[in-house]
Amino acid sequence: MSLLEIKNLHVEIADEGKKILNGLNLTIEKGQVAAIMGPNGSGKSTLAYVLAGKPNYKITEGDILLDGESILELNPNERAAKGVFLAFQYPVEVPGVATMTFLRTALNAQRKLRGEAEVSTPDFIKLVRTRSGELGVSQDMLRRSVNVGFSGGEKKRNEILQMAILQPRLAVLDETDSGLDIDALKIVSEGVNRLRSPERSMIVITHYQRLLDYIVPDVVHVMAKGRVVRSGGKELALELEAKGYAQYTDTDEAA
Amino acid sequence: MVQVTPIKTPAEQALHDVYDGARGTLPGKGAMASLREDAFKRFDTQGLPHRRVEEWKYTDLRTLMREALPLAAPPDAEAKANARDSGAVFAALNPRKLTFIDGAFVAELSDLTPEPGLSIGSMAAALTQGDAGVTAKLGKTFETDDIAVALNTALMGDGAVIRVAAGTALKRPLHLVFVTGNEASSFTRSLIVVEKGAQAVIAESHEGIAAQVNTALELIVGDDAQVDYFKVVAARGVHIGSLLMSAGRNARFDTFVLNHDVGVVRNQSFVRFAGERTKGAMRGVNLLRGEEHVDNTLLIEHAAAHCDGREQFKAVLDGESHSVFQGKIVVKPGAQKTDSKMMTRALLLSDNAEADNKPELEIFADDVVCGHGATAGALDPTLKFYLMSRGIDEQQAEALLIQAFIGETVEEIAHEGFRGAIMNAALAWLESRG
Fold first, then answer.
1. Interface ipTM above 0.90
2. Contact B157, B184 (CB under 8 A)
3. Which of B242, B171, B167 is nearest to B204 (CA)?
């Protein structure tokens, strides 16, 4: 069974009625790293949010199956406990909540929902030390409020740190490369690559082929106008880089 | 000419009768008796403050106080036994407890072991004996024509009289524990003088059954003195607390008030920076639900140059609760280089809660930095989604965000022990939200 199956998904913004996803079909196999590329406004970020369960989106048709079971009725935290993780394009600042407290609360909340025991303090500290060391996240950052005063690169590293600690089965990386310089991109990509495993699937959303030099995908899907319009191997990314997205859009300016 | 006699509300009439019945037995004679008399006349003419009195616009006592309860009788053995473990909120700090039940000082529930440089007495005793050191100061710390203060002056029965002698650093915090054991009214007046170069940590807590409490504290902070002052109100009924404070030169003060699980509360602070180069902070947090009502009103007067003032008040409101913040900063002529900042924020958890924020500046000096800000809003759904997307359930996500909102202010408390105790009290409230 595939890990994730998205069937004929139609989504609109709840208050505005604006249609974003328009009959999207996508299957992600266990252990697969899938890149999703596409022009601005093709619905890539909406797909990421809808997978994580963000409110304000209305699903008018279709289904999202994780291990063959629909997750549409699940709250974001229940999806997280089932192994869905979204690395935000713009990680939010949470003033007053220390990063360590946040990580621990999140990990234990997930474990509790799965019926597992809470992680002990020494084990937790050891886990955070190891993972933060690998990502170059300093002790000072861990003591500070979540993302408050972090640079763009630090915020992205903090996202990957959360992923490394929460160990999801399906990680959705929403434009993790945006706003990163080449050194930060390397650190983040190495962090992601360390987490690749036969038990973990990833959806890597990006505009640019550059990220895929570091995180080499198994498959590439192209999104346009709210659905997947083409799928192929990693060479598809190179083709897009060379030809652009013009063939997938109607507008003249992109041609 | 037609004589206009305003019709008294039942509460006003009852207070009139209370004063009439008690005037003969209230402590103090001569000058003190006429001080009471004058104060009472002011109340009797103007009545309870109501919405057309600007300073009381959002806390209309005529409406909120339908009746006035009779004066509390002296506490009996049962009331004393019940009050034995009160003041738990600060117990971890091992403070010197001074207990008041229904407004009366209870020596046997108070720690009166001597400490060099510290003198403690009861206001009732000081007034009865006509202690000139007390009567000369009473009502002079910050003169105001506020009616709630006038009512306190008219009916004050007991309270604490504390002096921390020049240069003394108190070894333990002082904790004035006010407990109500009867559905009655009490009027307490305390006078605390922290002399030149002295250091004191002073706490005040209010708990017990629903009663009517009108309490006033005159706090005199001497030159070079340092005072940390904490107040917790966690009692139903009506609580009107007035802080009348004056700080000398090069002094430091740090105050904090926490209100939770209350009925109607009005905390009004009248604070004067009377000497140069003094730094003072006043902060507070209201945790409200149901139909609770809390009003924190400040009048900060900068009468001397080179002083720094910081005020930050926050409210978390659920249900149909009502939070009021009024803060007025007055910079007197000559108070140059004043640096005064005031911030108030309300977090609304319910559509039916109400927050009123009214910051004001009145500046009569030309070389000052003054500012104020006010916000009111709901929990940020983006933050909530971020936390939930990591596995934290909705209730816990909200609790974390509320905790962060409160924490921003509580973390500013300079005294580590009290910072912890107040945060614990706030966390207990959060847990009780369920």
1. yes
2. no
3. B242
A92 reaches B (C-beta below 8 A): yes
pLDDT tens digits for range B293-347: 999 999 999 999 999 999 999 999 999 999 999 999 999 999 999 999 999 999 9
Given CB atoms, is B35 within the 8 Å cutoff of chain A? no
Angstroms from A250 CA to nearest CA on chain B: 33
Tell me the CA end-to-end span of chain B in Å, nearest whole number. 62
Question: Closest Cα partner for B258 from B199, B204, B299?
Answer: B204
Is A232 in CB contact (< 8 Å) with chain B?
A: no
Q: How many CB atoms lie within 10 A of CB A200?
A: 20
Nearest to A150 by CA among A158, B408, B401: A158
CB B26 within 8 A of CB B35: no
How far is C-alpha A193 from the geometric centre of its chain's CA atoms? 14
Query: Are B396 and A95 in contact (CB < 8 Å)?
Result: no
- β-strand B293-302 against B264-273: which pairing, if any? parallel
CA dist B14 and B19 (Å) reads 9
Whether the predicted model's global pTM rises above the 0.90 cut = no
* pLDDT tens by residue, A156-202: 999 999 999 999 999 999 999 988 889 889 999 999 999 999 999 99
Count of CB contacts below 8 A, A vs B?
Answer: 78
DSSP state, residue A197: B
Q: Does B394 touch chain A (CB under 8 A)?
A: yes
